[in-house]
Amino acid sequence: MSTTEHERGREELVRAVAARLVELRRKAGLTQQGVAEAMGRERSGRWLVAGLERGAVAGASLSSLVEYLRAVRVGFGNLVDVLDRYTSLPIPESVLKFAEAAPVPRLQAGSQALECVQRRAAALPEKRELRSRTPRQEPDIETERVRRRAGYWVLRKVFEHFLHSELTALGVPPSVWLRRRMAAYGRKVFNALFRTRGPKEPKRPERLSRLREWAQRQNLTAEIVRYMEFVVGLVFEDMREHDELDWLPPPAEAYAIMSVKPKHRVVTDAQMCLTEWWKANDRYARAAQEAYERAHKAATDLLPTAGLDARTLLRYKLAAMWATNVGANTVPGTSRRKQSVAGFHAADRPPELDRKLLGRVLAAALEVWDSARPNLPPAPGPRPR
C-alpha cells in the first residue's frame, strides 16, 4: 500500500465519520442549531457542528466530538464500525520497509546473557498455574469520584432552571445588577448546603455566615438574603426527600460531563435570560418588519404609476418611506407623533409633487401602523449583560 493510498484512506475515514454524525443527528430528530444548544453553545456551537458534519473531524478536539455525541445521546460505539474499517487497512509500504529494515535483536551463541536465559528457563516448571490477582481498586475509586462530581453538576443544572424561574416570577429585570447578584448568592447558598450535608452539617452555620458577609458587601439587603436562603433551602430539602442529592450518573455520561469545561456544563440564569431575549427580539423584529412592509405597500399603492419621469417617481417613493418611518417610530397621541407629522408636511419639496397626494400617503401609512401596533409582541427591552 502506497502513501497516496494511505492518505486516501484517511480522507475516506473523515468523510465516513462526518456522514455518520449527520445520520446520528437526524435519528435524534435535531437540527444543527438544536445540537449546538444541547452542547451549551447557542451562538458559536452551530459553526462547530457544521464543521464536524462537513468533515472537520480531523482537526477537531476529542472534547468537541464528545460534546456532539452527548448532545445526540449516543456513545462512541456508534463509530466503532467506521473506525474498524480504517484500522483494517494495510500499513503504507514506506512504514513496512522501515520496519523490515530494522535488524532483529538476537543473542549470540556462547554469550553470558544467553546462558543466563537458558538457566532461568530450565529452573521453571513445565506448567505454571496462573495466580489470580485481585484487580486494582484505583480505577473504580476514580470512576466513583468522577460520577460524584458529575452528579453535582447535574443537580446544578436542575437548580439553575429553578433559579431562573424563581427570579423571573419575582419580576426582577434580566438586565439589572440585582438579578446577577441574587443569582450568584443563590448558587453560593446551594453549594454551601450541598457541601455541608451529612456529617459536615455542623459546619453549615459558619459557612452561611460568611456568605451573608459577602452578600452585605454586594449591597444585597437583609430581606433579599433571607428570601434567597429560604427558597434555596426549600429546593434543597425537596431534592433530599426525593434522594436526588446522592444520585450518580452512569460512568460514560459522567466522563462526558466532566470532559466539558465548567462554564459549559450548565446553562446559567444569565445565559437563559439572554436566550429568551434573543427569541423575543426575533419575534418582535419579524412582526415589526411585516407591519413595516404592509404600511409601505399601502403608501406606495397611492402613488401614480404613469406619466412621471424617473426622478419625480423616486421622490414620491422617498416620501412614502418617510411616511412609513413616521408611523414606525412614533405612537399616536404623543408629542413626538405631532412633531414628526408637522415636519413631514413642512418639508421643502419640489413643486411638481402633489401636497394632497403626500398627505394621503402619510395617512395610509399611519393607519396601517396604528392598527398593527396593538398586535405586535412586546418589545424585549434592554439586552441582558
Describe the structure.
It is a single chain. This protein is mainly alpha-helical. The chain is 66% helix and 0% strand. The protein contains 16 helices and no strands. The relative contact order is 0.08.
Note the quaternary state here.
single chain
Count of runs of 4 or more consecutive helical residues:
16
CA gyration radius, whole angstroms: 35 Å
SS-based structural class? mainly alpha
Shape: flat
| Percent of residues in helices | 55-70%
Main β-sheet description: none
List low-pLDDT spans. 94-108, 124-139
Order of helices and strands: HHHHHHHHHHHHHHHH
Strand content: under 5%
Distance between the termini: 57 Å
**Beta-strand segment tally:** 0
Mean pLDDT: 81
Kindly give the count of domains: 3
Write the layout of secondary structure elements.
Blueprint: H1 3-27, H2 32-38, H3 45-54, H4 62-71, H5 80-87, H6 93-101, H7 112-123, H8 138-170, H9 177-195, H10 204-217, H11 222-241, H12 251-258, H13 269-300, H14 310-329, H15 335-345, H16 355-372
Helix pairs in contact: 1-5, 2-3, 8-9, 8-12, 8-13, 9-10, 9-11, 13-14, 13-16, 14-15, 14-16
